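Folds vary. Our protein:
___
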Amino acid sequence: MNIELSSFALLILWVLLCYLIGTIQIGDIVSRKRNVEIRELGTKNPGASNIYDKLGPKYGIYVFFIDIAKGLFPTIIPYALGYSTWVSVLSMFILITGHMVRFPYKTPGGTGMATSMGAVIALIPIAAIATSIPSAVVLIITRSPVYTGVFAFLTATISSWLIYKNFVMTLSVLIVGALIMIKVRAQYKSLK
């Protein structure tokens, strides 16, 4: 078999795996274990914030960190194996697509905030660390995960450019942040 063909087949399998990992909704799993239908409560989002509000801090924090890991590992593995940046970027976008658009499942995906945070941490770790403390301050002041997310993605985009000077990584972070804000706006608009 041709090496290029086998590499392409491996990439296709990896992309499918990233999509499938993205479709796993940790909040749904945790809420079902507690006999709660989280999609009928609060924001109706199976994300960490709604879990935190409706099931308690322990479960919300658990979902938050598992969702971060869900975004982190599929994005960092290609980088750790020595593949080019575009493979990690592709992994991140496919994973987030799986999180937001859960074909063939009947329930929609969450906003993808924590999953995207994990992917961004994998893609631009130093910039993500630089963003974490100011973002925590914004969360403490506003008590709003949405405002904090907007702030975190904007500062991560700026930090990414200042630290890495890599157009692809910086643009990718900006696009992911924009996708999340579009999803948040659409999801919360439907609650009105």
